[in-house]
Amino acid sequence: MMLSSQKHIFWQAFIVTLIVFSLGIIVGVILENWRVSKIDYLYKQSEITLLDIRAQGDMASLMHLDCETAIQENLAFADRIFKEAEVLARYEAAERLTEELELEHKKYDILRAILWSNSIELRKRCKAGFHTIVYIYDYNEPSVDAKAKQGVFSRVLSDLKEEKGGEIVLIPMAGDNGLSSVGLMMNLHNISESELPVILIDEKIKLTDVTTVEEVSKLIK
Amino acid sequence: MEILPIVYLSYMFVFLYFLIFFLMVYLRNREDLFSFEKLGKHYAVSFVVPAYNEGKTVGEALKAIFDIDYDNIIEVIVVNDASTDNTREVVEKFQKIYPKIKLINNKRNLGNAAGSQNVGLRHAKGELIAVVDADSYPSKDCLRKLVGYFEDPDVGVVTAPVYVRNNNRFLERLQYIEYKTIGFSRRLLDYVDGVYVTPGPLAVYRKTALDEIGGFDEKNLTQDIEATWNLAYHKWKRRMCLATEVTSTAPSNFKAWFSQRRRWLLGGLQCIKKHWKTMFNPKTGMLGMFIVPFFILGTFLGSVGLGVFIYLFSMRAVSSFLYTQYSITAHTPLVTATNFYITPSFLNYLGLILFLFGLVFTLIILIVLKEKILTKQRAFDILFYVFIYNSLYPLILISSIWKLALGKVEW
Lengths: 221, 411
Fold this sequence. Notes:
Chain A contains 7 helices and 4 strands, in the order ααααβαβαββα. By secondary structure, chain A is α+β, with helices and mostly antiparallel strands. In chain B, α2 links the parallel β1 and β2 (73-80). Classes of the chains: A alpha+beta, B alpha/beta. The interface between A and B is large, with 45 and 44 residues.
């Protein structure tokens, strides 16, 4: 039979594996946390910018200041969190061990809801010429069909944004994150979770079927 | 955490465990790998060579046997299993040169090597029975290095590493590397009494041990694995010597390779079916405590992995189909630059590291076995072997399970 010194190798290898594996998991958690802190940093900057815009809006209504600056800053902010959303989506797709990014996503959704209401307000108050396109998608458990549809919707809207630039404020947000602010806006515009993904143009036109960039452009006009 | 990452992590843990296990056994015994037991008693050895349509190779195999440097080979029994080629004529020609050759012609084809081996076994008079395939070529020093192990009365069988003789074509070169790693790993298992197969190309059995287990199981597609498990069950030691070798002809085309691997897998499944009750039974020694669980774990992980792969693949296929349909409707491109902008997950990194560990282990084996690894062709072969070739196992598993389900368990 085997030497007695060799028979211990089975559990010794197990212990070594456990140590190496645990180290690997720790490194994985560190990597994911690093990504979370990167997103969190971006979020904080965006949050400050939004608060600044809101404060500016409040002051504008009090002092009858120029609307143009507020509109431009709103558009710039929308572009900024749209780009950050892309980074967040990539990191989320690569998140395996922790679920921290889900919280970041929720925080961003709140920012987007505020951006949405801010945009509506600006359009009313300043008679701004931009259009709001809100894209509400299924975040938590989209079906295979919804996932494929959402992939195409994202592409159509990205192309549209590229084409229209400052003419539109594009706001993608999760519709099933359990946030009361988002829920409220969805109720207000008769959007239920079961019909997601939905594109809402200027709070008037609701699109649930896949369509071309040209068709959406026509609807904006 | 979702289920899929847990499945991935479990696989990675098992893979890492065996990698570390083998590495530890190697590090502990690296000075002793090529040692062998000194030849004491010169036991009488009978060779048994089953042959079915081996006219092209049997002559050279016989020559190799008679070239062996050992003074007590008493007979070489060739069992011709009703070959339809010139096997019989070739052996008869060699009989004139080597009178120790005994040719037995089966009246009808038995359909498996085990049957012919048992025929040879019944006629053999030696204390040790060396079983050699008719397309395999034992090295000159094999008996001088293997027979010494039988000084230990508990040793029932001793084997040597099988290396690939033909290594010109790509598939042959991959098998060349594979056989090196198999032989080396088996030697490492020898240190923990874990040798689970004494392969057909060359295994020397104690006749009394073979008699105790009733010879080879003719219903099993891998009678060599089954015999080894049976010997382990009967508390016989199985030993492996890395100091000598036997070369064999590996399949040259994909079809032959695939059917050989499928036979190995089916045979393994048959062995599991026959011996699963020994699992975790300490009374059955290493058979129940290591060999059977090792095989069952391998089959289980292979099957689950396959299931996960099929699930992911079909989901991806459905998703791609729908995505394509929607893209056509929306007139959007199917692929854009963003598709190539990938953020790797932690599991991607871990998987890559494990593959690299596997690569390093393969390199260690080849370096220890004094193989050249720095040529362009060899470097490519090694990379292909580690990253692609080893991943083909689930494909063979599907086919084996399918055959087993249809009841088509045949040679």
